[in-house]
Each structure stands twice: as C-alpha cells, then as structure tokens.
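User: Hi! I have a protein structure encoded as tokens and I'd like to know what sequence might fold into it. I'm fairly new to this, so please keep things simple.
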C-alpha cells in the first residue's frame, strides 16, 4: 500500500509497514495452528439465527408490525370489528398464504368455541401456543380478550407471558403443589358464576348481547370479553386430578354463551375422560405425533403421522369439519432484528441522517431526505445475522403490549399463589385493612385487627382477614414449625399498631422457642416470661389474676349499680367519658405460646400443670372483666379451654381430621413448605402476615426484623405522648419487714412477707390456718421464717395476748424475742422432752373446756387467755437418732385439736428425705389434720411435700406458701428488723 507524497523522491511512500518475523518463528506458529481445522459450525449457527429472525418476520408481517420497537398495539386494538373478534392468523401455508383460526362458535361463522392441539415432544406445540397467545394479545385489547394459561407439566412454556395485560393468570407446576388443582377448579367455577351473575344483573342471555349493549352505551356494566383457556399438557392435569374432567366439561358446555374458549394442548389425544369436552370442540390442530393411531385420534386421519415425519417443527394441520389445512405456525422465540430502511426512513425513525459522500474541497449540498415512498428499497433480511445478545422477538412484543395495556381495566382470575408471594409484611395488610399507613396509628380500633390473607379462589380474591377480640379469646393451632409463634406476634403487632398502650396491654408466657421476646420492647408489653423461668411464669399469671379479682370486687361496688365492661370501655376510652375504677389497664391479653408446655403432668413438675389450670380458669371466667387469653397449641382437642376460644387461627394441622375449619379435604392440601399457611373458617387457604415492616424484610432473620419493627412502633407511640403500660413487678430478692411496700397485716394475720398475687403483704390467717411448717434445705431461709414469725407476733400482739414457746436445738432463736413474750426456751433433748410433757399437761388442765358443760355452754365457751405459739427449729433435731418417736410426742393430741386451745405451732423441717424423716412424723400428721399451711423453700423438686406442692431451686427466703383455702402462691419472706448477712452467718 502506497501513498502520494511531495516530500519524497518520485512522490511515493509506504502508507503502512508490514509485521515481519524470522522464518523459524513462522514455522513454530504454523505448527501451533495446525491442530485447528476449519469448520462450518459458526456459519451453521449464524444461518440458524438468521432463519429464526426471518421466521419471526413472518409473524410481524401477518400482524402488520413494521418495527416492533416502535409498534403501538392500541392502533390494532381500536380497529377490531365484531366479525374479526377472536379471529387471528396462526401460520402460513406452503404458498405463503396466511391461515386463520376463528374461535367464535359456528353460529357466528367461527370454528370454535373450543379446540384441541396435539403434538409430540419436539413438534413445536409449546411454541405454537406461545405464538397464538402473542397473536391474541397483539390483535385484541385486554378488555376484549383475557387469557388463562395452564402449564401442567411445569416446563415454563409460558414464561414471560404473565406480564401481558391480557393474561389473567398462569397456572403451572401443579405436580409439586397439588392444592393448586383444587384452586384451579374453584377459579373456573367462580368465573362461570361471575359471568352468569353479570348477565342476570343486566338481563342478557349471553355475553354477545351484553357486550353489544355495553358498546352502544345501554348499560355501564364492566366489560366481560372472551376468556381463552390455553392449557398445555392438559392430560397431565387429568392424571393428577381426574375430577377436573367434569369441571372442564361444564366449562365447555356453558362457555358457548359465556364466551369462554378452551384450547386443549397435549402430546396425545385424550378421548375417554374428555368425552364431554370433545363434543363441544369445533377444531383440531395436529402437529407431529408418534403413530398413525394418535394422528387419527387427534385430527381424524393419519396425515399428521405420515406427512410430518421429517417436517420441521411447527408443521401442523388445522382441521375443521374434516377439512385439513396444512400450515407452519409462527415462530416468535427467535432473535429480534431491526429492519433496514432507506435514508429518509431512518431519518424519520432514528433522527438526522446524512449519507456517505466523497470528501473534496468543493462545496457539497445537503442531501434531500424527502423522497417518494415508492423509491424505498424493500427491507432485506436475507443477509441479516442478529447479534448474540439480541433480545427475543417475543420479549420485544411483550414489552410493547404491556406498556400499551398496563392501565386498562381487567378482571384477574388467577391471583399468585401464596407460596409464590413469600413472606407478607404486616404493614401491607394493615394499610389495606384500614386504608392508612401503619404510622397513622389509632388509639382504639375496637379490638378488630388484620392478621393475614385468605385465598378465595371462587371469588378470585385474596382479601385481608381479621380477628375480632372484643368479647372473646383467641386460639392458634397448627403442627410444629407451622408458624404459630408468628401468628401470635402478628396479632400482637397489629393490636400495637391500632391501639394505644393505655388501651391494651400484653402479658406473655413464651414456651414457643423464645420468639415472643422479640416484642418485649413494645410499650404495650407489661412482661414476658421465658420458658423455664417458673417464678416469672407464675408471676405473670398471678398479676393477670390480680387484675381480674380486683375488677370483680371494685366493679361490683362502683356507684349505685356497679359498672360492667361495656360501660368501663365507654367511659375510659369511648364516647361517654366518665370516672371508672382505675387500675392502670385497659383490655388485657394473656398470651401463652405453646400452652402444651404447661400441661406437663409428671412427678417432677406439677407446678406447670397448676399454672395451666389457672390459665384455663382465666379463659373461662375473665372475659366479662376485659381480660382475654391468646394461646397456641399443636392440636385443638388437647386445649382444655378450646370451647372458650371464640376466635381461631388454624395453620396446617399434623392430622387433617383435627381441622376445625369445616373443610377437612382442604386441610389435606395445606402445603408444608411455607410457614403461616392454614385455613380460614370457610375452608379457604390462609397466609399469615409476618410481624415486621416491609422495610426490615432484608434483616438477618425474622426475629431481628420484628425487633426492629418493635422499636419503630414504640418510638411512634412515644412521639404521640403515650406512656408505656405498667411493667410487671416481680418479687424482690430481699425485703425487710418494715419496708413501706409491706403494710401491716389485718387483725388476726401474722405478716410473713410479700406475696406474688397482690405484690403486697402476705401472712398467716390464724383463724383459717392454726399451724405452719416450713420445708427447705440448709440456708434456704427456714430460720429466718421463724424469726420473722417472732416479729409478726410482736407486731400483732402484746405480751399479755401472746406467749411464745421455743424449742431451739440450734440456738438460732435465742435473740429473736425479749423475755416478755418468751414463756419457754429450751435447747437440749432432755429439756425439750420435759417441756413437751409439761406443756401437754398444762394444756389439758387449763385450756380444755371444763367437764360437765352443756352443748349450749360449750358453744358459748370463749375464755380470754393469751395465745400460745410453739416454734420448733428444726423438727428433725427433736427426734433422737434411733428413736421411734419425736420428743414432742406428748403434744400430738393438742396440736391435732388446737382450734379451741389458742395453740399455734410453727415448725421448720429439712427437705431431704422428706417422706422418711418428716412426712411420717406424727407432729406433721397432727398439723396436717388441723389444717396447717405449708411454706416450701429451696429443695429437690423430686420431693413431694403436700398435694402438688414441690420444692424448686430458689433463692433464700423465696418459697411457695400453700393453704388449703387459697391454694399456693410464691412469697418472699421478709427479713426481720436488724437482720444482716452477718446475722445470718452467726445463726448457721
């Protein structure tokens, strides 16, 4: 290559310098390249892509689309005439003539209303269906044609079509989700009902008359249009659910007047199960099949077998009234190639265009871009080779159709199945239910809250479902790991978003894996007890019981006629403000996640069973006082208070027969692959919302998202100026006898400490309980108990009213009283034995009624004398080793009949070996016979003390005080005045 130059001799120079290499390097390169042989694979691939592009152009030409990128579908949609309704080209004959499919019924000169398409694997059946759907969407507006697609083999044949405005649903992958089959049946039946109801409402016999009147402006009904069911691999559907044949027969029979069309596409013709539907079919499309017999079953002749053995995919026969029309269907899955234009056309489509011209020093005029249309060259696709990343023609068309019809009205038949939705944040259902953002919280929504969605396939709806808690309890049941804890937290979160912390309060027992704790930050939460924290669990229940008993007492005595729950709510929160018996609470919810954990009735843990009984009682008796119970369990029938659960949320049950939702058949089909799935009372499928906001959906896990939501909700109520609900108080680890929180006991009661029921003074009512024995390990607080009793005696009685007898082998009570109260103090076994005999004689002589009294005199006999209190620390030290009976044996008779002797006995005992060392002791037997109370401190829970009362691992001074009248409650023994750790060490 040379260039002309005036700077070199002869005027020529090299324009480029070629690369050179030595001969040996060239030889080495040649040997390296020798392994590669020339091939025509690249040419073949390019040729195939070019052929696909030309095939796609046939579709564009058939529908008058010049450039798919700029195509406006609304132009074609606006030109459809009644005669052209649901009539469209589906392919070309060998001579290039278009072949049309008319889905109208024969009365309207059509081929329908229904038909079949049969083709073996590789015949092009799925591609034919795809082109057919695109053709329908390209020619007809969404209000005129709706399409329901069914891909029953799960091969994604219709992938991408779901975004078309015409497509009202895509049913696929049913083999892995058999419950969708039932859903499909309901959807189709629901559509029949919907269309018939619209026709009946406006008084028309069929959709044709309805649409004609609507187009003429004679009524304002919604457009119905034609519904076209394109069902790929329909025989697979019948194998999975044979009963669908009857449903499809009904749809086919009624579809004629309702404008419902069915295209049944399968690999082979199904003649037996589909007899009813086949009778309604007006056309058949046959592609390549496996045998002549299958061809006859499909199109009535063997031609699909004989003529398509070596035919390319898409080759087909359209058979109407035994007339066979051969054609090749359109191909729309190939790459899109933009058409070539002349300059003037490119100027109009791409902007300013300048052609190539020779560059010289002369002035060249601008080219004329306005030319006659006849001068345009034909688009040339013969040499078009699309790039590797060129989009598919189908995707380009789908995007254009979607953009044009996105806002057009349409009725959606097949809504996305719940398993396709995934987790549903609570703000989604809250905003839909109340029509406001969640942050616009209300102070009182009437105790009605949303918690999920139901899938009402018959009505083609997925409405938000709610639960009304104004006058009922709530139960949540489901198999393990079905989302029961999630359902409870969703209800709680919905309540917190719609009711102020003054309006509702939560007390929780979390035996469901700890997830309830994620809501502890809500200002509505008073306290949540974790599984294993028995003391706090008892405290939660005791606090709720206290609220109920307080309301029972105070509401009955309020004003002249008392006050009921309705009046309480109206005055405190409603439209009739007024005074109420204030207790710091509104409607109270006791939440027990996994109540079955409280039903443990073993020899080792009867405490939980007692708590379960108390929760059951609250569920039965507390609604009239604004206290509700929300519980979850694995089964309904094992919930003792199930009859009191007026509201129920049912997730998937382990045994469908346990379902309470009126449709046990539907219960069998609740999927186990998604938490929160269940049934509503009508048998529709349910998806419970997640208890977190959508903005936190990407958090590490559900608990983290819920905690973040809890914080945001709490901040919102703080911004609105609401104080949090009163927090749950727990028994202190230590409390002194003179603590202001422990007011003096009423007359006849010895103050012991603080009780969990009222979080106030608890004591021994000597009228109901003449004796008490205290059981525990060393350092559990047994001696402190007796010293506190001494202080209570001094507070309640003067020395003239009470005398104390102390049997103190450990010298632990030596400084507990002054001598004005102390009548007897002995420490050695001999002294104890002698004192016991003397006291017994004194009782018999001075404290028994005189002989000879009449019954009337005995009834009136009430001598004035000081009470005798016998304090024994410890009882086991009063029984000599090897002896058969206690040193206190002489007192047994008096202890057993002490109610009229002004005699009270307070005893401490070791818990170890309770049955052998203490329960068999006649002193304990006599005390039990007289109605003694029991205080059980720290100890091995395997030791059963009395009835269902057992020791537990407890801090010093903490114990369960059990009386036969009031049952048990946890207490903290008050430390006597002046008691310190040093004092405790001195008395060990």
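Assistant: Happy to help. Inverse folding works backwards from shape to sequence: for each of the 988 positions I chose a residue that suits the local structure. Here it is:
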């Amino acid at each position: 290559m040379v260039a002309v130059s005036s700077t070199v001799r002869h005027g020529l120079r090299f324009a480029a310098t070629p690369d050179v290499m030595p001969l040996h390097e060239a030889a080495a390169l040649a040997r390296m390249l020798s392994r590669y042989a020339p091939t025509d694979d690249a040419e073949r691939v390019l040729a195939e892509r070019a052929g696909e592009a030309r095939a796609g152009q046939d579709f564009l030409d058939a529908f008058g689309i010049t450039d798919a990128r700029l195509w406006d579908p609304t132009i074609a949609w606006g030109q459809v005439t009644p005669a052209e309704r649901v009539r469209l080209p589906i392919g070309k004959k060998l001579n290039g003539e278009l072949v049309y499919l008319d889905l109208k019924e024969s009365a309207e000169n059509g081929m329908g209303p229904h038909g079949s398409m049969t083709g073996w694997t590789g015949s092009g059946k799925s591609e034919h269906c795809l082109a057919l759907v695109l053709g329908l969407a390209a020619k007809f507006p969404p209000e005129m044609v709706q399409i329901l697609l069914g891909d029953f083999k799960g091969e994604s044949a219709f992938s991408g079509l779901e975004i078309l405005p015409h497509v009202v649903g895509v049913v696929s992958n049913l083999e892995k989700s058999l419950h969708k089959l039932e859903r499909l049946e309901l959807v189709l039946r629901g559509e029949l009902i919907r269309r018939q109801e619209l026709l009946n409402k406006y008084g028309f016999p069929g959709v044709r008359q309805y649409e004609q009147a609507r187009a003429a402006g004679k009524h304002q009904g919604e457009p119905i249009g034609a519904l076209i069911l394109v069902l790929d691999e329909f025989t697979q559907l019948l194998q999975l659910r044979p009963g669908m044949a009857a449903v499809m027969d009904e749809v086919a029979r009624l579809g004629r007047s309702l404008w419902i069309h069915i295209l049944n596409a399968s690999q082979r013709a199904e003649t037996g199960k589909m007899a009813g539907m086949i009778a309604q079919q007006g056309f058949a499309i046959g592609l390549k099949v496996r045998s002549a017999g299958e061809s006859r079953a499909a199109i009535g002749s063997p031609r699909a077998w004989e003529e398509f053995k070596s035919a390319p995919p898409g080759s087909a026969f359209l058979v109407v009234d035994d007339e066979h029309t051969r054609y090749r269907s359109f191909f729309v899955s190939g790459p899109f190639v933009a058409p070539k234009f002349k300059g003037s056309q490119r100027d109009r489509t791409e902007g300013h265009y300048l052609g190539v011209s020779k560059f010289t020093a002369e002035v060249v005029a601008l080219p004329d871009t306005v030319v006659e249309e006849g001068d345009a060259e034909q688009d040339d696709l013969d040499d078009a080779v699309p790039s590797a990343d060129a989009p598919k023609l189908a995707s380009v068309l789908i995007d254009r159709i979607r953009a044009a019809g996105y806002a057009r009205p349409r009725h959606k038949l097949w809504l996305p199945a719940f398993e396709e939705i995934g987790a549903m944040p609570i703000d989604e259902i809250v905003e839909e239910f109340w029509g406001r953002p969640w942050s616009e919280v209300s102070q009182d929504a009437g105790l009605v809250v949303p918690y999920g969605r139901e899938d009402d396939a018959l009505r083609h709806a997925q409405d938000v479902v709610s639960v009304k808690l104004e006058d009922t309890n709530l139960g949540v049941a489901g198999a393990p790991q079905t989302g029961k804890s999630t359902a409870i937290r969703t209800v709680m979160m919905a309540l917190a978003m719609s009711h102020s912390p003054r309006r509702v309060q939560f007390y929780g027992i979390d035996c469901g894996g700890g997830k309830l704790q994620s809501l502890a930050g809500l200002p509505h939460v008073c306290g949540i007890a974790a599984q294993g924290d028995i003391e706090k669990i008892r405290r939660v229940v005791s606090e709720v019981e206290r609220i109920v008993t307080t309301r029972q007492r105070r509401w009955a005595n309020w004003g002249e006629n008392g006050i009921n729950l309705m009046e309480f709510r109206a005055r405190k929160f409603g439209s009739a403000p007024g005074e109420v018996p204030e207790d710091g609470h509104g409607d109270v919810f006791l939440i027990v996640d996994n109540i079955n954990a409280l039903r443990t009735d073993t020899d080792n843990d009867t405490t939980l069973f007692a708590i379960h009984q108390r929760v059951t009682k609250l569920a039965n008796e507390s609604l009239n006082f604004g206290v509700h119970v929300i519980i979850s369990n694995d089964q309904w029938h094992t919930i003792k208070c199930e009859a009191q659960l007026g509201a129920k949320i049912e997730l998937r049950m382990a045994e469908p027969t346990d379902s309470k939702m009126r449709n046990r058949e539907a219960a069998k089909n609740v999927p186990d692959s998604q938490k929160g799935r269940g049934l509503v009372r009508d048998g529709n499928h349910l998806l419970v919302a997640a208890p977190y906001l959508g903005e936190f959906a990407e958090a590490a896990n559900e608990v983290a998202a819920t905690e973040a939501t809890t914080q945001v909700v709490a901040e919102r109520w703080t911004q609105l100026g609401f104080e949090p609900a009163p927090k749950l108080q727990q028994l202190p680890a230590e409390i002194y006898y003179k603590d202001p929180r422990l007011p003096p006991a009423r007359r006849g009661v010895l103050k012991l400490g603080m009780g969990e029921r009222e979080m106030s003074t608890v004591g021994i009512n000597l009228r109901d309980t003449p004796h008490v024995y205290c059981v525990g390990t060393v350092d559990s607080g047994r001696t402190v108990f007796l010293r506190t009793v001494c202080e209570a005696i001094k507070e309640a009685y003067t020395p003239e009213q009470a005398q104390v007898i102390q049997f103190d082998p450990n010298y632990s009570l030596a400084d507990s009283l002054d001598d004005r109260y102390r009548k007897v103090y002995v420490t050695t076994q001999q002294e104890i034995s002698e004192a016991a005999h003397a006291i017994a004689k004194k009782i018999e002589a001075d404290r028994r009624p005189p002989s000879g009294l009449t019954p009337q005199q005995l009834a009136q006999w009430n001598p004035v004398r000081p009470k005798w209190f016998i304090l024994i620390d410890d009882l086991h030290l009063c029984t000599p080793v090897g002896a058969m009976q206690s040193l206190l044996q002489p007192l047994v008779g008096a202890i057993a009949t002490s109610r009229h002797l002004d005699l009270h006995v307070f005893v401490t005992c070791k818990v170890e070996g309770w049955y052998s060392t203490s329960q068999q002791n006649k002193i304990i037997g006599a005390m039990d016979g007289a109605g003694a109370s029991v205080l059980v401190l720290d100890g091995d829970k395997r030791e059963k003390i009395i009835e269902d009362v057992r020791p537990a691992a407890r801090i010093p001074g903490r114990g369960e005080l059990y009386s036969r009248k009031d049952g048990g409650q946890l207490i903290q023994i008050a430390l006597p005045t002046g008691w310190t750790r040093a004092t405790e060490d001195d008395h060990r």
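A useful reference point when you look it over: The chain has three domains: 46-329, 429-454+469-719, 749-847+864-986. Feel free to ask if any position seems puzzling.
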